Structures are given as structure tokens and as C-alpha cells.
Amino acid sequence: MSNYDQNFSASMQFLKQLTKDVLESSRVYPDQSVVGSAKNTTGDTLIRPGGRECYPCFWVRDFAQSLECGLIRYKELEHALILTAETQATEDWKTPSGSFVPKGSIADHIGFDGVPIYFPGGASYQEQGQPFGYFPSFDNHYFFIEMAWYAAKVFKKQHVLEDPIKGISLLSRLKKAFSIPPTDPETGLVYCELNKRGVNFGFTDIVVHSGDLLFCSILRYRAALKLVDLLEVVGESNQSNHYREIAFKIANNIFDRFCDKDGLLHASTGKSNQLDIWGSAFAVYAGILNPSQSRKISHALIKALDANTIAWKGNIRHVPTDNDFSNETVWEETVDIGSFPKNTYQNGAYWNTPTGWICYAISQVNPDVGKNLATEYIQQLKSDDFRQGDEFGAPFECIHPDGNHRQNPVYLTSVTCPLAAFQRLNWI
Q1: Residue 73's beta-bridge partner residues?
Q2: Where are the domains of the chain?
Q3: From CA 209, how far away is CA 109, in angstroms rounded?
Q4: Residue 179 has what DSSP assignment?
Q5: What architecture is domain 3-424?
Q6: What is the mean pLDDT of residues 331-343?
Q7: The whole model's pTM is what?
Q8: At 47, which helix (H) or strand (E)?
Q9: What are the DSSP calls for 266-334, one per residue?
Q10: Degrees (nearest 5) of the Cα angle 28, 85, 126?
Q11: pLDDT per residue as tens digits for the range 114-139
Q12: What does 80-95 look like in DSSP terms, one character per residue?
């Protein structure tokens, strides 16, 4: 093994141990409280989106996205899955802000006291809703299905699918959740109008998207295939064709509907339809594209890396710097531009959550470029490793060179998602 290979292997092991330590920092044990939150009275351990003062609630999407790394225990998954199912909306209701929660909706996040919040932005049951959409975040409905799939297929606990939760089987709850986000019946893509808007993907929850939605449509595709698996597990293969056909329809339409002439995919077809780096890479990662389409995106990502428009220190921007909407904002519209100035948070900062997806996508055509990006990512983690003391914070949620912007130290998906991708690439 060459010195380069040895050093790369050591970097991967560093990442795995760092991920374990971030995960432990993210655990909230029974009767424990963090950063002034309520005590965890849900009966078992919950995993929040990070350590230190990071987001004092259980977030469905952050947890679900972290499962692929293989470091979360089954008991933790089972508790999170049942809690998510138990808080599924039991009736239609309107929030005081005028937003609407349909029966069967999945929470965006859940307090340590077990109270569900169906919209981003806060922890108050009464204050939830606008400006973060008229409908609950769409993506969590599909992440709920992924959680169940991991329980039944990866951990082989098939019984969870038919065990009643408040009198309703988990499988019935999954099918109901799948039906909640609005879709175009012709294409199978997730679709929303501005006056019925929900969050496309929680890592763009401040962004106003409309029309066909890229990222959430990919999640719907994955969820449909996972429902096929789950239905076949319980012997309901006669129903599985319905979801298989949905997945096929999405895959057949997604590239043509979102693709730019240069190969990258747009985030939406309506409001804020800029090029979506995360979504482009995730499409390759999810296996929704044919080989020719995947290669086109992979080459476009390499070109963007070479042009220095999407990455900084191994962190990835949502939108290429040469595709910003204006000098004032990256996205066409955010929920409150004053609170999220350009080049901060989801409006132009650089994130580690998608780094693994980028590495995976570009490694399909040039593994060396993928490894170089991964190396830059690891180097940034090492230089600011939170285990060195309170003045250090990596992995951060996001960073930017302007003003030395650093947000939310000890952030979980900044390591769990890349670790999962690197494992898929057999780098670990």
C-alpha cells in the first residue's frame, strides 16, 4: 500500500471515530435535558441533530439520514420510529398562523416532551406554520418510510410493520404518510403551488420553492421502492406494483424535467429554480438516473469543482456561485431575507452534509477527484476537531469564509452522511 493510500485509509478511520463521538454527543438519554430544553420524557434515548447547543429536539430527517452510516442502535431506531408514528396527525387541523395539517402528516421535529411540531422554525405547538409553508414539510413523510425500511430490512425486525401503534399498523401509517405530499399524477413528481407550499427538503427550509420539486421527488422515488420491499416482506406483493409504477414514473420524468443544458439539475420548475448541487449529486446517489444521465451530472460536477463555484474546504454550497439569483440573495426567495443574508446558512454557506454525495457522484467517472475532495473535507475536520476543546467546533452545520461564518458546531449529518457515502464507495 502506498503512503497516499495509507494516509487516505487513516483519514477514513479518523472520520469513523469522529462520527461515533459526534453521535454520542447527540444522544439525549431519558430524563436528560440540553440547552434549557424540557427533559427527555419519551421513555428512551433520542438523537438530536448534533451536540453542544445544537437544535434541542428530535428531527425526523436528520435521524433518518444518519441511519445509513450503520452506527445507530436498533433500540434507538425503534424508539424514534414509534415516536414518529405516535405523533402522526390524527385529524385535519389549521394552525393559528393559517397553515394546514392534513390527517396522516408526519412531524418535522418532536420535542423531548413528545410534542410534535409539523413545520420548521420553532418549538411551539401553537406558533407553528407560516412562514415555513402552508403544509407540513414534505420530505419527512418519505424519511418516515426510510426509518421503517431500516428496521424491517436492515435490522430484520419485520414484526414492526404489523404491530399496532395506537391501534393502527405501522405499514398502514406508512402508506398514509406517502399519500400526503401533493404530486403531479402524470409525472409522479412532488409538486406545489405557492399558496399551498410545503418545504421541499428540510435543508432548504428557508427557501421558497414552487412547481415540480427535485429533491423531494427523489425522496418519493426512494420511498416508493422501499414500500415495495416492505409490502413484499409482509406478503402483500399484489399492492407493491402500485408503488413500483410510481417509482418508474418518477425516474422516467425527473431528468428531462429538471436538467439544465450543462448537465446539472434545477431545484424546482417554479420559484427559486436555480441549479441544485445537492439535488444533482443526490440523484446520482439515489440511483434514479440511467448511466448516461448520471455521467452527464458527474462530469458537470467535476467542471464546477474545477471552476471553484461549489466547494470550499470540502464543504458544498447549495447553488453554484455563478448561478446566484442576485447580488443580494442566492435563492430567488427565502422566508425572511433579513434573517438569512447572502452567504449564510441555506442562503449560500458551505455544508458537509452533501459532501459524500458529491464524492460518490464524481467518483463514478473519476475516483481520484472524488478522493481529493474527501481529503479536503477530512483536513478541515481535523483542523477544527471539536474534541480539541471548546474553542473548536468541527463538524459544523455550515461555514463560509465571509466573516469566518461558522454555524452549529458538532453537527451530526456533517459526518454521518459522508461516512455512509464513503462506505458505499468501499473507502472504509
Answers
A1: none
A2: 3-424
A3: 21
A4: T
A5: Alpha/alpha barrel (1.50)
A6: 86
A7: 0.97
A8: strand 46-47
A9: BSBSSTT--B-HHHHHHHHHHT-S-HHHHHHHHHHHHHHHHTTSSEETTEEESS-GGG-SSSS-SSS-B
A10: 75
A11: 999 999 987 678 889 988 999 999 99
A12: HHHHHHHTS--S-EE-
